[in-house]
Amino acid sequence: MIISNRVKNLHPYVPGEQPKDRVYIKLNANENPYAPSPKVQKAVMDFVNNNPEKLGLYPDPDSLELHAALAEMLNKSGGVLCRAKVCGENVEPSEQDKIPFTVTPDMIYTGNGSDEVLSFVFYAFFDSSKHFVMPEFTYSFYPVYAGFYNIPMDQVPLKEDWSLDTDEMLKRAAKNEGGIIFANPNAPTGLGLTRDQVREMLKKASSDEIFIVDEAYVDFGGESCIPLLAEFKNLVIVRTFSKSLCGAGQRLGYIVANPELVNIVTTVKNSVNHFPIDAVAQVSGTAACRDVPYYVETSRKVADERDKFYNFLQEKGFYVLKSETNFLFAKHPKISGDELYKKIKEQGLLIRHFATKGIEDFVRITIGTAEQMDELRKAIEKAVSC
Ligand SMILES: *Cc1c(COP(=O)(O)O)cnc(C)c1O
């Protein structure tokens, strides 16, 4: 047999479909409908035009400029873009989001999308004897890493209202001396825990075990746990450019954590790929972080459109979870999730349906532009009326 036993047992992640046969309105992968800031485009063009030789050289392995720009963006926005206060070029966090310390570049680690970042975080903090606890329904890449790295995992069912069962997660983590990971706000439900709720969890969890909060969607209205880094040295916060920074194609993800934990993840990175962030991504990511007002505006537009669409779905008889993200998770009493997905696809729009038992009645709808959501309204009206 040519292949290793390890590979025989892999179960790769299945992303939202990216069909090439027809142009669909894509509301199935939680991408942002808006292009990155025009300043990102300009920075990339300038870089390529003015320094073509740099494409022939290795990039900065430590992405120092990008880390400095990220730290500054977090300090300005408080880590929740849609609530940040903008006055011309100046940005300040809302009262609710103020971070009680300055985020410094040595608290940042960046990788090739937060999927890669997560992979290194899993490698750094878990192994076959150090298992982790996660919610039953959360980002479906976590179990994939568990398989890849041979890490035992414990999946805790959600409560009846689809929120996290934090007590049970803590209980199981204590029993097996394991770490904890969840997305906050969670996916695919869209529901979030408040910072106080996470603080309570952290107080009860073992400070010797890692506690990972994936904030992929927090900029659309959740509460960031960055302020908790002052209190808890075992906390790792994972974030991405793919959702609120309109940058899924740039493949940039990052963690915010204490420098000691950042150094551990950096050691893992340097043992796999010294240069996961290419030169162009470093330039585009830095330019994005320096135009916070643009992303405050796009995050707000998405959040407003989400709240309008929530009302629409309710009017149409859907059961919809209240979302703090750029998607809605909803089911209709008369039409199955799979059927709805198919009827919407026939009309040229893609939404996401998970065949996973327990959530198979739901569809997950990414929030697009106002025009795209109008198209989806029409398609849904047609689908539920016949
Ligand atoms: C989209 C998503 C990611 C992955 O983001 P990339 O940076 O594009 O790899 C990670 N975690 C959650 C919860 C997500 O929804």
SSE layout and pairings?
Blueprint: H1 5-8, E1 25-26, H2 38-50, H3 64-77, E2 85-87, E3 90-92, E4 108-111, H4 113-125, E5 132-135, H5 141-149, E6 153-156, H6 166-176, E7 179-183, H7 195-204, E8 211-214, E9 235-240, E10 253-257, H8 259-270, H9 279-289, H10 292-315, E11 319-320, E12 327-331, H11 337-346, E13 349-350, E14 363-366, H12 370-385
Parallel strand pairs: 1-13, 5-6, 5-7, 7-8, 8-9
Antiparallel strand pairs: 2-3, 4-10, 9-10, 11-12, 12-14
This protein binds pyridoxal-5'-phosphate.
Pyridoxal-5'-phosphate (PLP) is lined by residues 30, 113-115, 139, 183, 187, 214, 216, 240, 242, 248, 253.
Q: How many alpha or pi helices?
A: 12
Structural class: alpha/beta
The largest sheet, given as strand count, sense and whether it forms a barrel, is: 7 strands, mixed
How many beta-strand segments? 14
Mean pLDDT: 96
CATH class of the largest domain: Alpha Beta
Bound molecules: pyridoxal-5'-phosphate
Q: pLDDT under 50 segments (min length 5)?
A: none
Please give the share of residues in helix.
25-40%
How would the global form be characterised?
Answer: globular
